[in-house]
Amino acid sequence: MMRPLVIKTDVLHCFGFEKRHKLTVDEAYELLCTARNPWITLYYDERDPKDVNDVRDFAIGHAGLRFGEFKDRYGDMFNVLLTTDKAKNAEQAVRMADKGVSLFGRKIKVKLEVLDKDDKRPINAEVIEAAKTLRHAPREYSVWPIINYDEDDIIRLAGLGAEAVRVMRGPIGCSGTVKDIPDIRRLGRLGIDLKLPIILEGGIGDEEQVFEALTTPGIDAVLVNSCLFKSIGGRPADPKAMMEKIRLAADEASKRRAACVYRFGGALNESY
After folding, report:
1. pLDDT digit string, tens, across residues 54-110
2. Cα–Cα distances in Å, from 36 out to 57, 64, 67, 144, 175?
């Protein structure tokens, strides 16, 4: 049986993780188009679900950009990924998912997360509890949970019917300097065995790490965020330029689905 095609892209992304990571409506659109990403990620942005009463009020990123502004200019060109951003326990995550799905009035995907007090790592047990609650609810929820690398927990989420599982390469915001997965090929094989799409995220710092992930059989997509807003060599961050590098790396990876060392410097590694 083939693995389900639910992700529909190999590059997903968010829109910043700090208030200083500002984007205009057009810049957000350009990032989506450059990535060839059909999913726009929406946030509560630290608001209680009861205070969000219209889909237009959802945030894009954490710098004040609202979904209503985006819809006014670009309509419904993109699918919605609703994130339970910075939820601290399973109950809060469930409330966020329930409110979002109620407001949209249609089936959307829930990027299910419960983070620790520093907002750096998921709390696996709470994420699994939230997934269990949502999957057993009368309303149909499509969940994409995020967890720290743990093979038993990936198997549990597969058994609960998660559409895809997002696995942390490293803590949020580390920009690729920490790697918590000892063997990415083993993770890919687990996804293949379970027929479960795997998204690698958290701590992807550059296009080389994107290429490494996407040439690994069983890793279906990456999600990037902090690396888009990282200044390099003292120059201001340029999210679109960074996304162009990531898109190019993903395109090269799609031609070469075998785990290998790669150094992204314009020319392909001569070892191919």
Report:
1. 999 999 999 889 999 999 999 999 999 999 999 999 999 999 999 999 999 877 899
2. 25, 24, 19, 20, 22
Flag whether 270 is in a domain: no
Rounded Cα distance between 4 and 254, Å, is 18
Does 75 map to a domain?
Answer: yes
pTM passes above 0.70: yes
Domain hosting residue 31, numbered range:
11-207+218-228
Say whether pLDDT at 259 is over 70: no
Catalytic one among 86, 99, 109, 111?
111
List the Cα angle 131/132/137 in 5-degree steps. 100
111 is catalytic: yes
Q: Decide if 247 is inside a domain.
A: no
Per the structure block, which two tokens stand in for 248? 């190019």
How does pLDDT run across 134-178, given as a tens digit for each residue? 999 888 799 999 999 999 999 999 999 999 999 999 888 777 778
Number of domains in the chain: 1
